[in-house]
Amino acid sequence: MSPPLLSIRDLRVSFPTRQGIFEAVRGVSFDLGRERLGVVGESGSGKSMTGRAILGLVRPPGRVTAERMQLDGQSILNLPERRMRKIRGSRISMVMQDPKFSLNPVMTVGAQIIEAYRLHAGGAKAEARRKALEMLQAVQIRDPERVMGAYPHQVSGGMGQRIMIAMMLAPDPQILIADEPTSALDVSVRTEVLNIMDRLVRDRGMGLIFISHDLNLVAQFCDRVLIMYAGRIVETLPAQDLHRARHPYTQGLLNSLPRLDAPVARLPVLHRQDSWRDDLPEGL
Amino acid sequence: MNQTLPQSRREWLLSDAPQTRRQARLGAIYQGWLTFRSNKLAMLGLIVLVLLIGMAILAPWLSPQSPFSQNLAGRLQPPSAAHWLGTDHLGRDILSRLIHGSRITLFIVGTVALIAPVIGLFIGTVAGFAGGWVDQVLMRITDIFLAFPKLILALAFVAALGPSIGNAVLALALTAWPPYARLARAETLTIRNADYIAAARLQGAGPMRLLIRHIWPLCISSLIVRVALDMAGIILSAAGLGFLGLGAQPPMPEWGAMISDGRTYILDFWWVAAMPGIAIFIVSMAFNLLGDGLRDVLDPKGGRQ
Amino acid sequence: MLNVENLDVWFGHDPDRVAAVTSAAFSVAPGESFGLVGESGSGKSTILRAIAGLIDSWSGRIEVAGKPVAGSRRDRAFYKTVQMVFQDPYASLHPRHSVDAVLSETLRLQGMGDIDRRITRLLDDVGLGRGFRFRYPHQLSGGQRQRVAIARALAAEPRLLLLDEPTSALDVSVQAEILNLLADLRAEHGLTYVMVSHDLAVIGHMCERLAVMQQGRILEIMSADALRRGAGDDPYTRRLIAASAGYSRA
C-alpha cells in the first residue's frame, strides 16, 4: 500500500468559552489515500471543524493540536499563515456549502478563476485564461466563454458550485475537501455536480474528503465513511457496508430517516447515550 | 428565592434553564455585564462616567470654592496649592467651575440623549415599517435636515429662539435625530420581513403592536450604541455653541464657554483654556469607550458563545 | 377545509412583474395532510404565504373552511383557524423574547384566558416541559426552537396548519422527533396539514396526497402510494423521484 496522502493522529480543536474549554474535535485520527472519504455527523459533531483544521482555517482563540498532521510525509500542523496559504489552493483545496458566499460578487467568474490559477501556478495571463476555459469545460459548463464574463449573481446555484469546483481544481491539488458541497442545491442539480466531482477526482488520482450530514448520499458516493459524534470518530466503515453499521449512533441515524421504499407509521428516534461521547471506536 | 436553591448566585444567574421570569431577565442582564466587564477600556469609560455623575451630584460639597466668587486681585493665577487648576480672568477657581460645569454638561448630554434618539427611532421605524408614501415623506424630511451642517443648523435654531442653555439643548436635539432615523429605518427594513414578524402577524398582531413590541426592542440596542458613540460629538457641539456665546450664558461655568473665556489669554495663561479642554476630552473619550463596550453587549448580530 | 382555485401569485409591478405561481388549484379535506413538493423557486412556499395573508399580490380564489379570503386582510376568525410553522427555527423566533413572552403574547392576542395553565399545557404538548418556559431562543437548540414555534402555532387552537419546510434546517435525528410530534398532534387535535418540502421522503411519510410543482405550476396531484411506487404521470415527477432516491454513479 502506498503511503497516505494525508495522515492525521489525535487531532484536537478547542475553544475557550465562559464555561471553560470547549473541545469541538476530540482526538480524531485517520489516513487519506487516493480515495473518496466521507465524513458524516450531525451539526456540532465537529466534522466541518476537522476540515477547517486541516486547512489551517481555525481562527484564534481556537487552538489546534495533533500528534501528527502530515501531507505527503510533511507536517502541516500550525504552519505560519504564509506557508499555509501556499498549501491551501495548490495542494489542498476546499469547496464550501454555498457558492453565493464563496465567490467574490464584484469580480467576473473568469477573472476569479484566472486569479486563483495564477496565484499558485504563476504563468502568463493568456495561459491562465486557456486553463480557466478548460476547467469550465471540465465541469461541463456548456458556454464557457459567456460564463467567464458573467458575475456570480448572474449564474444559478448549481452553476456557481461547478464554478467553485473548477476554481479549486485549476491548480491541480492533491486533496479536495468538500464541506456539504451539495446541500444548498436541488436534487436534480446535485447528481450532476456529484458526477463532475467524482470524475475529476478519479481522473486526477486525488484524495477527496466529503463532509456531509447525509448518510445515504455519502454511502453512495464515497469509498469509505467516518461517522463522527461529539468531536470523535465513533465508527469507520467501507461505504458499501454502511447499512451493516454496528454503532448504535450510526444505526439510529440511518433509521431516523423517512424512506419512500419502506414506509413506517412512526419514525424511530435516536436515544443518545453518554457513553458514545467517550467510548473508543471499534476497530481502531 | 435564590437561597432555596443549592447553587451559588453566579450559577443561578448563568443557568441555561431559568425557572422564573425574574431569573431569566436577571440572567440576561448578568451575561451582558460579564461581556461588558471583559472589555477593560469600556470599564474605564464607565468608571470615568460614574465619577462624573458623582461629581455632578456632590458638586457643592466637592468644590473648594464658589464657582462664581470673583477675586480680581488673584486673577490668572497658575495652578498652585490654593487653586489646583489655577484661576481665570476674573480670579475664579477653575477647579470649582469645572466641578459645577459637570452638571451642565450632564444636563446637555442627558437631554439630547433622551430627545434625539426617540425622535429618530419613531420616525425611522414608522417610515421603514409603513413604506410607501409615508416612508417617502418622512425620509425626505430627514434628508432636508441632513443636508445642512449640524452646527450651522443648530446655530440658526438658537439664533431664532434666543441664546440660552435650554435652547441650545433643544437645537442640538433637533439637529441630531436624522442619523438615528436613518439607522432605525435601515434596521426596520431588515426586521420587517423576518419570519418572527410574519408569525406575530399570523397571531393577529396589529401594526402598532408589531412596531412597539417587536421592532423597537431590536432597534433600540443599536441606537443606544450609536448614541453613546455620538455623545462626544454632542458635548463638543454644546461646547461649540457655548464658545460662540449661544449656549450657556455667563457666569454659568459651562466648559465650552470657559474655553472661550480663556481664548484671549491662551499664550500666556494656557491653563485657563486647557483645563476645561482636558475635561471635555476626558468625558468625550469615556463615552466613546463606553459605546464600544456597549456594542459588544447589545449587538444582536454579535451572537454569544 | 382548504380550497384553492386558479391561483396566480406575482412579485413586483409591470413591466418587471415576475409570476411566482400560475393557475394553481387544489383542495384539502378536513383532517387530511396534503404535501407540496418541488425544487427551489417552484412556488411551493409562495402558495402557503398567499393563503396565510403574507402576500397580497395574488388573484384567484382561496377558501378556508368554506369562507373566501381576499388580499392580505384576514379577520380574527381566520387566525383562529389557520396557523403556520416556518422553515428556519433560527429566524422565526424573536431574539429578544423568551418562550414565555412568545406564548403569552400569542394567547393574549387570541383572547384566551388562564394563560399560565395554557402555557404549561402547550409546552407539555410539544414535549418541552415547563423547564423551558423562561428561556431565550439563544438558549435553545434548533429542534427545541421548532417545538416552540409549533407551540406558538397551536396556541390559537387552529384547525389548519401550514408547514413550510418545518424540518429542513434540522438534523435527521431531530427531524424524526419533530415529524413524530407533528403526526401525534394531528391525531390528537384532528388537525389538517398543508406541508411544503423539497424532500420527497418526508412528504411521503407525512402526507396522504401531494402536488408536484415546477416553475410555479402544479404538474400533477398524486397519492403518496403512487409516489412510493415512483409512478408519476409527468416525466419531471419521475425524474425528481429518481434523483431523490440518492446518487448512483454515472
Automatic annotation (TrEMBL), chain A:
UniProt keyword list: ATP-binding, Cell membrane, Membrane, Nucleotide-binding, Transport
Subcellular location: Cell inner membrane
Record carries keyword Secreted: no
Protein family (similarity comment): Belongs to the ABC transporter superfamily.
PANTHER family, per database record: DIPEPTIDE TRANSPORT ATP-BINDING PROTEIN DPPD (PTHR43297:SF2), OLIGOPEPTIDE TRANSPORT ATP-BINDING PROTEIN APPD (PTHR43297)
An MF annotation (GO) of this entry: ATP hydrolysis activity
Residues spanning the signal sequence: none
Gene3D superfamilies: P-loop containing nucleotide triphosphate hydrolases
Stored Pfam families: ABC_tran, oligo_HPY
InterPro entries for this protein: AAA+_ATPase, ABC_Ni/Peptide_Import, ABC_transporter-like_ATP-bd, Oligopep_ABC_C, P-loop_NTPase
Native species: Paracoccus siganidrum
GO CC terms of this entry: plasma membrane
Protein name (database record): ABC transporter ATP-binding protein
SUPFAM superfamilies per record: P-loop containing nucleoside triphosphate hydrolases (SSF52540)
Record domain ABC transporter: where: 8-255
Membrane-protein topology: Peripheral membrane protein
Any one Gene Ontology BP term: peptide transport
From TrEMBL, chain B:
PANTHER family linked: D,D-DIPEPTIDE TRANSPORT SYSTEM PERMEASE PROTEIN DDPC-RELATED, OLIGOPEPTIDE TRANSPORT SYSTEM PERMEASE PROTEIN APPC
PROSITE patterns: ABC_TM1
InterPro entries per UniProt: ABC_transport_permease, BP-dependent_transpt_permease, MetI-like, MetI-like_sf, OppC_N
Regions crossing the membrane: 41-62, 104-131, 151-177, 223-249, 269-291
Keyword Transmembrane helix tagged: yes
Membrane topology qualifier: Multi-pass membrane protein
Localization per record: Cell membrane
Protein name per Swiss-Prot or TrEMBL: ABC transporter permease
Source organism superkingdom: Bacteria
GO molecular function, one term: dipeptide transmembrane transporter activity
GO biological process, one term: protein transport
Gene3D superfamilies on file: MetI-like (1.10.3720.10)
Keywords noted in UniProt: Cell membrane, Membrane, Peptide transport, Protein transport, Transmembrane, Transmembrane helix, Transport
Residue span, ABC transmembrane type-1 domain: 102-291
From TrEMBL, chain C:
Protein topology in the membrane: Peripheral membrane protein
UniProt keyword annotation of Flavoprotein present: no
Location, primary (coarse class): membrane
InterPro entries (alphabetical): AAA+_ATPase (IPR003593), ABC_transp_ATP-bind (IPR050319), ABC_transporter-like_ATP-bd (IPR003439), ABC_transporter-like_CS (IPR017871), P-loop_NTPase (IPR027417)
Statement: the UniProt record of this protein carries the keyword Chloroplast: no
CDD domains: ABC_NikE_OppD_transporters
Biological process annotations from GO: transmembrane transport
EC number in record: 7.4.2.10
GO cellular component terms attached to this protein's record: plasma membrane
PROSITE patterns, A to Z: ABC_TRANSPORTER_1, ABC_TRANSPORTER_2
Reactions accelerated catalytically: glutathione(out) + ATP + H2O = glutathione(in) + ADP + phosphate + H(+)
Domain ABC transporter: from-to ranges: 4-240
Keywords from the named record: ATP-binding, Cell inner membrane, Cell membrane, Membrane, Nucleotide-binding, Translocase, Transport
GO molecular function: ATP binding; ATP hydrolysis activity
Locations listed in the record: Cell inner membrane; Membrane
Function: Part of the ABC transporter complex GsiABCD involved in glutathione import. Responsible for energy coupling to the transport system.
Subunit: The complex is composed of two ATP-binding proteins (GsiA), two transmembrane proteins (GsiC and GsiD) and a solute-binding protein (GsiB).
Family that this chain belongs to: Belongs to the ABC transporter superfamily. Glutathione importer (TC 3.A.1.5.11) family.
Protein's UniProt name: Glutathione import ATP-binding protein GsiA
